[in-house]
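Pasting two entries for a bug report.
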Amino acid sequence: LTLDSDLQHAVQRSLAAACEKSHAAGGTAIVLDPKTGDILALANCPTYNVNDRARTSPECRMNRAVTAPFEPGSTLKVITAAAALEEHLVSASSDFYCTGRMKVGRRSIGCAHGDQHGSESLNDVIKNSCNIATAQMGFKLGKTTLHRYEKLFGFGEKLESGLPGESRGLLTPPEQWSDIQLANVAFGQGISVTPLQLAAAYAAIANDGVYLRPRIVRGVRNPDTEQVTPDPIPQGRRVVSPQTAQEMRRMLQSVVDGGTGKLAQLDSYTAGGKTGTAQIAENGHYGGKFVASFVGMAPAAAPQFVVLVAITDPKGGHYGGVVAGPVFKEICEKALIARRVPRDKAEHPAAKKRRQRQDAAAVAEA
C-alpha cells in the first residue's frame, strides 16, 4: 500500500483527539503526496477494532473519506478562483466590491457572519473567504464553464482510487442550474464532494496544475521473493497552467499567514490552505450543524504534502480555521519533519526550545 505506517498512526491519534475535544459526530483526515497521488495516511472517526467487527455499528465501519460526501463550502472557492484566473476573466490585480449581500433574481445571498468586505483584490477574496465576490466570479465563468472545471478537478465522478464504496458526490448538469444555484456552487453550496475528491483537487494546485488520481495501492509483492513491483504513477491531466497554480498557492499562503487560517500556521515551514465552515442540509433545509474543514499544503512554494481535515458536527466552536486548522498544523509538521523537508522560514523561539528538548530526550533515550 501507499500508506506510511508511522504517519498513519500519527494522523489517527490527532484526528481522534480533535473529535473527542469538540464532541464531534465524526471526522476524516487525509494526507496525499501531490507528486504521485499516493494516499500516505487516511483516518476516520469514529473507528472500530478490526478484530471485533461483529460488535460495531455501520457508522463506525464507514470510510468517510470516500463514502460520505458533504457540501464543501468555502474550500471550493479555490476552484472557482483558479478557473476564473485560467480563463483570464480575473487577474491578481482585479478589484471586487462586497456589500455583504447580493441580489440574484428573487433570492439573495450574503457573506458569512454578515461581513461587508468592501473593496477587495482577488487575494483578499480568498483571504477573507468572500461569498459575494466568489459568486461574481461564478457569473463571469457561466454555468457551462464552471461545471467543466468542477469535472476537471475530479468532482462528480468516482476516483477509482482502489478504496471500496466510493461515492461520486453530487454535481448536477449545468443546464439544470438556476442562477442562484450557479452562485451557490461557486462558493461551495449546492454541490457535494467526498473528502478524498477535495484533497485530490487541492493536490492539483500543489502539483503545478496537474491532477493525479489518488491511489492506495503502490505495487504488487511477489510472495516468493518478497520483492515489490511498483505500479506506474497514474498519468495526470492538466487542469490549470503552472502560473495559475502558483498564483493560487500564493493566495492560499496569505490565508494562513493573515487570514481565516492563522491557527494552521506551521513552526519553521510556510503553508497555504483554505478554511471551510459548511452548513449541513437536513430535510432540504440548512440547520445548525456544520462540517468544519481545512485543506492545505506545505511548504507553500513547493508542496510535499496536501492535508485535509474535516470534522462533522463539532460542538461549541464550528469554524474550520478554529476546529480543523490546528489539526492540520499538527499533522503537517509531523509529516514534514519525518520526511526531513528543509525548513523554509525562521523557527519560532518557543518551537525551537521545544524541539531542542525533544532532541535531547531522544538522544538520552538512545
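Entry 2 (this is the one that rendered wrong in the viewer):
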Amino acid sequence: SAGSGGSAGSGGSAGSGGSAGSGGAPTACPARDAGTVFTHADTIDFLVQDVCLSSSGQVTADDPASCACHRDLLLDEALPYHKVDQGDPGNPFGFQISDSFPFRLRSGVGVLQTFDFAFAETPAQHPRAFFEFDRAGGFTSSAPNDGAPIDGYDVAEHDGPRASYIGTCDGSGRVQPMWSWLNGQASQCQLADAWLLFNEQTVSSTVAAETARLRINPPTHTCPSDFLSPAYTEFRLQPYTFTTGKTLTTLVSTHFGGASPATSDHLERFYFTREYGKARWERWNEAGTPKTSGCSGPTSEVLGGKTFIRVDCRDWTSVLVDPRGGFEPRSWPVDLRLGWGNLLVNGDFGAGLTYLGPWDRVGTQPDRSLIERNTPTDVQHRARHLALSWTGAGSSVLFQNVDNPGLPAGAVVGFGARVGGASNAAPLTLRLVQLSSQGATLATQPLTVTSAGRVASSAALVAGVLRLRLEVVLGQAGTAYTLDDAWVTPLP
C-alpha cells in the first residue's frame, strides 16, 4: 500500500514561477494565487517542497511555512532543511525525514518523495540513520532484488491534468511499480494515471472525485493484461491545521481501496501544501487499534455508511536544518524502471558497517573497517561514511564499475560525492571513466576537489560505452579523507 516509508507519494513536473525543472533561482518572490487552484503551475506548487528566499534572492534554511518569500525547490538543487515527523523523548529529531524533490523520470520530470528512517537502535536491528539510504546488501537502482531496502521512496508524475503515483519502495513490499492501461487498452500499459491523487481541472474547495484503475503487480513487475482494480479517489482544497499547529492551505486526497467508500475496507489520505509538498499521510482501516501518537485529529470517521479507524499516520511538518550544507537527491537508488536513480551500489555506505559492496582498490581490496559511523548526538548520529588514506605506496585509487543502462552516445551522465579532507594542499580527484566492452578507456572526465563538501560534474557519453567507472583518487599521502553520498546518475 502507499503511505509512510513505503508508500505512494507526491507527483510533480516542471513548471513556471520557480517550479521543478526551471532554470536559475528567481530573484523576485513568485506570484501566488489567493488559494483557488486552476493552473498546472499552481498544482505543481503543492507537490514540490519550497525553499525560502532572502530579500536579495538567496536561498536560506528557514521554514517556508513562516518566511515571507518562498519558491519551489529546483531540479538538482541542494535542500538546506528537511521535513521530519513528530519525535519522542528517545528520538528528539523524529523517526523519519520525508522530502519532496523534483526528480528525473524515465520521461520528463516528476517528484521523488524520500522516506529516510532513523531511530533508537537495538542489537537486533540494522542501524537506521538519517541522510543515507539504509539497506541490506547490494540493493540499488538496477538490482532491486539484491539485498533489501530499509528506507524507501515514492515516485510520481504530473505531466497532464492528473497527478499520480507510478511506484513505491519500502522494506516490506520492496519496489512496486503502479500500472494503468493507456486509453483503457489492456495491451498498452503505462506507469501513469494509476494511483490517482487529483485532477487539476476539477480541484476546488468543493470535494471532487474520480475512480482510477490500477494494478500494483509484484513480484513480476510486468504489465497486467487481465484486470485492473478500481480506486475511488476524493480530493479537495481546504485549510488544515497540522500537528505542529501550522494552518496551511492544503490539497487533501483520499484514496479508497475499492470502487466506493461503501465497498472499501481501507483508505489512505494524503495532505499536500505549497510550502512542504506532501506534508502528512494517514492509513485508515475498518478495524484496528487507533494510532494516536504523532498525529493530531480524530482517529475514527464514518464514510460510506461504515466506520474507519486511523491505524497509522505521519505528519512531516517539523523542520530540521541540514547540518552538512544540503542533501543530494541524485544519490537515492531509485529503480531505473521509474526514474534515473543512482547507479552505484552502496554509494552512501548505508548498508551498515560490514558491507562495502563492489567498491575496489587497484591492487589491494579496501578494508571494510574503513566504514565509520558518526558519533555526534545530533541529527547525524549513526550515519556512515568511508574513511580513506594513502601511505604513498601502492595505489591511491578507489573505484566502482557500473553498467551503462542502455544510454546512447551523447547522453549526459552526472557524478559527484560529499568529500572531506580535501584542500589546495591535499586535493582529491573524482574521475568518471567510460569503458568499452574490452575494458579500454574511451573517455575520462576529471573533477579536482580542493575543499571539503558536496561536489558534482557531468560528461557526455561517447560511442561504444559499455561500462562506467567512478574513481576516487587520493592526492596526498598521509592525509585523512572521507567519502560519502557518491553517485553516478543519468541526466537526460
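Dev reply: Rendering is fixed now. As a check, the viewer should reflect this: The chain has one helix and 32 strands.
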